[in-house]
Specification:
Chain lengths: ~325, ~325
């Protein structure tokens, strides 16, 4: 279950605590990146994208809208170490031209890049904003959940953080985005193969994908595992396009969102042993960014190991700036 | 894949013909009521509901919106003779009050009535119309597809047709709807148990759920099976609330939509043998409404067996009346 930040969703959080969410045939219910059915160990997740909330057409081509949405959903499968099979696409568009076809073409390309196919969907003409909801289905033998992190584990992340957020900041201030940052926002690539490789190569204790930003997603992982996560600011793999931003991009890397990288917990030293092979295989950095200790929440340390305040949630761009 | 009527979706139909929609792990791809994964024989379908397109809040309580959407999606599982396991709900609402909670309460109640649970979802605050996309997952041993009807088969439908459409007509002309018609629209009940019973009790050759209206859905079934379906107007189980409408409600029963009953093809005489037991078990009529012959399309016969024109698609209320 993905929930937007902030107190506007307190109602629904309370509701989910009361709702009937476990039953026969359900291996993993709400609260993780995917639900997992007992039948065939099918992992499921959905991701809703709405124009003016999650994207503006000025920022994305129609094909990008489809690609982005499908990769955001596939990123949830990756976070459970599930192999994608296919997706259902529910789409509402206003116009009678090739809008739907171009968005669906991006969806299909996004799926194809992960060995998955379009399974079906629902298409509606609507005068409102473009709505695209992607539900992905995958298969998983041993799902990696958010809840398995233990004190003493290390916290690692794939890739670079803050690039997509840097692009949004640029567009919102009507300046040109760094091309690499723009690509990070427009064409994220779910870390499917990377997640399967990591789950095979090192015992992963817990994993989540970075959609809200490392600070928020690490907090989800900490809460699900009942632990405290300590992040070391100096180790964060800040995207080069984020570095010109305040605090050398650390705030964007922690709070920007839309990275669709993986964050996971593993026993000490086991990831270090495979990190070079990972980087060689995928051409993607793998960085230890912190550790797990007893407690709750997420803490941030500076280069000298002193606690420093977590950048404020002012970087939650959609919560504050959507009309 | 559900597609709205009319030529505005020609683009996407062409696209789907080109798209990559079969692959490893896919037993049934787009074009039927559900997709079916090889893994665990999991059946999947989604249904997108958008305010002002599929419903008005003046017609439905917030709980009704959730109930209706989940039953519409479960109706697709029923059409494949799949047993519901759970659903993902993607919801966008504008307000900060209990709107989301009340809609989700209707979703959860709708699932519970079918022995299914909430698996997860995605919740977004959006200033636009209420958006609710429900993806249901079920398990199925032998999916009943749209494509198995053969010349000589009989065509049967469950329940009564045109009730929901009668309610919409009343509301659209600012009159009070018949209470039974209003209930048919607000609280449809997917024919889950009925479909499983029928699939056990009689060899079903093909099945579809009635969401667009019998004329349109029979046409989908005929096209998928490569046959012609002949409907006999005098046999149609017209909902009592539809009878005051023109043509004694036959046009509403054929073109009204939103019935969420089942329409299926079976060998001659096999359903007749179990129809009384069905009616006794479910308190629901089961009516033979026509037959299958070689050819294509859907024909309508009057009481004397003479061809009569199919009522025009003017009853597709959303295509013409949404802004």
């Amino acid at each position: 279950m993905t929930l937007g930040p902030g107190r506007e969703f307190d109602h629904i959080r309370r509701f989910l605590q009361r709702a009937h969410t476990t039953g026969p045939g359900v291996l993993v219910g709400p609260g993780d990146d995917c639900a997992v059915l007992s039948d065939g160990r099918v992992a499921l997740s959905c991701d809703l994208s709405i124009e003016h909330i999650h994207f503006e057409r000025a920022w994305l081509s129609l094909e990008d809208i489809g690609w982005r949405a499908v990769n955001a959903a596939l990123s949830d499968l990756a976070a459970c170490a599930a192999r994608p099979v296919g997706a259902l696409a529910s789409l509402a568009v206003a116009s009678d031209d090739d809008t739907a076809e171009r968005i669906m073409s991006g969806v299909a390309d996004g799926l194809l890049a992960h060995g998955a196919v379009l399974l079906g969907g629902d298409l509606t003409r609507s005068p409102g904003p473009v709505v695209l909801d992607i539900t992905v289905a995958g298969s998983v033998v041993e799902p990696v959940l958010r809840s398995g992190a233990k004190p003493g584990n290390e916290i690692w992340v794939t890739g670079q953080l803050g690039g997509a957020a840097a692009a949004i900041r640029a567009w919102q201030s009507n300046t040109a985005a760094d091309p690499a940052a723009a690509a990070a926002f427009r064409r994220p690539r779910a870390r499917t193969a990377e997640a399967l490789w990591l789950a095979q190569s090192a015992a992963l204790r817990a994993m989540i994908d970075l959609s809200d930003g490392l600070a928020g997603d690490a907090a989800h992982l900490a809460a699900a595992s009942g632990v405290r996560i300590v992040l070391e600011a100096a180790t964060l793999p800040v995207h080069p396009a984020a570095r010109p931003f305040p605090d050398n991009g650390i705030a964007l890397a922690l709070g920007g969102g839309d990275d669709y990288e993986l964050c996971f917990a593993a026993d000490a030293h086991v990831v270090e042993a495979v990190a070079d092979a990972f980087a060689e295989t995928f051409g993607l950095p793998l960085r230890r960014v912190g550790y797990v200790e007893a407690g709750s929440g997420v803490a941030l340390l500076d280069a000298a190991g002193r606690p420093r305040p977590m950048p404020a949630a002012g970087f939650d761009h959609f919560a504050s700036e959507s009309p």
